[in-house]
Amino acid sequence: MQHTIERPVSVPRAELERAERTALPCRVQDPDLWFAEAPAQLEQAKEFCGSCPLQASCLAGALDRGEPWGVWGGQIFDHGVVIARKRPRGRPRKVAA
Fold first, then answer.
1. Do the annotations mark residue 49 as ligand-binding?
2. Is residue 89 marked as binding?
3. What is the pLDDT of residues 10-64, one digit of tens each?
4. Where are the domains of the chain?
5. Alpha helix positions (H), the chain
């Protein structure tokens, strides 16, 4: 069995102190949005990340840790890869001919 040690993200002290005084979106909104299956919910989480002072650090940390899924730093991760949009589950809709 392998164990991995997550390396903490280096965030400047001033940035951490400012974040502690700020209501970070991922702390005040529904946390399930950041790990939702529905593409619309993931897009909503990405929008919330846009106003976050830790967005860049969050994204860098997620990349360093190899996060498997969720919204991190305003980006959607799927199987450890950043994707532009998540596609809905199931079969694609039929297009009228």
1. yes
2. no
3. 666 776 676 666 789 998 999 999 999 999 999 999 999 998 989 999 999 999 9
4. 13-83
5. 13-21, 25-28, 39-49, 55-65
